[in-house]
Write a structure and sequence with these properties.
mainly alpha; 21 helices; transmembrane helix; transmembrane; AAT family amino acid transporter
Length: about 550
Amino acid sequence: MAASTTTGKISDSIDSEVGGSLILPENAGLQRKLNARHLQMIALGGNIGTGLFIGSGAALSRGGPLSLMLAFLLIGITLFIMMQCLTEMAVLFPVSGSFTRYATRFVDPGLGFAMGWQYWMCGVSVFAAEATAANILIGYWTQDVPVAVWISLFIVINLIIHCFPVRTFGEVEFVVSTLKVVSVLGVIVVTWVIMAGGGSDGRMHGGEYWVDPGALANGFQGLASVFVTAAFACGGTEMLGIVAGETKHPRYNFPRAVRTLMWRILIFYITSLLFITFVVPSTHPSLLSPTRNAAASPFVIAIQEAGISVLPDLLNAIVLICVCSVGSVSIYISSRVLVALSEDGMAPRIFTRTDRSGRPRHALIFSGIISSGISYLNVSSTGATVFGWFTSLSGMAFFLAWMTIIFCNFRFRKAMAAQGKEGWFKEPFAYTATFHPWLPAMAFTAVAFMAGCQFYVSLYPVGGVGRPDAKVFFGGFIGVPIFLVMWAAWKVVNGQWGFVPLGEVDLVMGRREGDTEERELLEKYQELSRWRKALTYVHF
């Protein structure tokens, strides 16, 4: 157990005895110092970054406006269903590592090993991707400073944040996520004004770009290519399960954070991108430019085309702050996943150790070093090719994580039935997914379909030569073979070929029924009227 190897104190929010039965803390080193407002703002804006502001431009040019909207709609609906499955497990077992540990516990240690290391690699790869994006964004203003300088500055800023207790990370993310939310809302308003003829040219925009150059670009191939971009833009939503391991009152706070998910996707992604398709054509020269600079953002293009001279620089600065935020979150997530792997004997035990502030210092240092090393690969042209593979690894990791979460939920339900624990869902304030198992089954199928689309466009990319290319294929699909090799390797080395028997699934360790304070919060919340409940989501 983590308690025997940590130097920190046991969390003041993890119960050692609940309901008359002994329930040991899953991770005694990590401390529950994040509260409701931290979780709410991380849920709202934690993963808003280059995927929305820059990646959407490439997606629009490849697939057209209809493909862009269909991809984000399907991703949004799927994520909402997936997060309901995760919430069922997280409110009962708010453990560090979240779904990577659920895979080990409810399905198979081999799956937990593969998913854990895959998601850890996803975290460090996303950090490197954001470091590159930061350099691209700064290049909007100047090209005179060497790439290594900006990457080094990006690394230092993000690592300094994690030199402080986890509450500091929560406060930084609260402020930056608030800025993200306000910025996206501001962009939506500005774009709406441009549509209404508020630009310097007075031109009004409707749906003309859906007619010419057209709603679809490159047919099904274009649509298939947009899914991975949408996944990268929305990916990271599942990280709330990992954050729950250090959140106060998870039974109260976690479901509330998930309930805002559809609103976040509907407003921040669907609405903003829908407005963009009205003012920026998919054939705009800046979208098709191979230079990949900040001007390729459809949001910047819309403002520039409207003749607004100051806002592009302001928006670029805001996106740069968003990029730094996503980098910080990536380090946080990768270090916590590494702690979970270590506690399960799938990584060196040294990574379980925490200091008195609850920081897993060795996991943070190791994740920071690897993330930094991958970031510097972008300094050379050869490194840029290798970096592209890591970017693909992170994109596919989201698809694999979502399918794993849904499958873990099915196994979790079956284990509860096999052990006579179904009554847990009838307890006061229990959380249950909507229309289970039909909606989760549909969501699993949808994610598998999108992953299959990525397989297809990796073989036959948009603008390709019409025949498979090994380099292009592995550059776009490398995450899946790595995942399968790790899963198979664990089984071969340990000789564990089947799933954990349902009757032997551990439904004790880490289970949390909630304390008196949490029950009082839930009771007071249930007594409120609808509009007063809505007001509880607003934090200052």
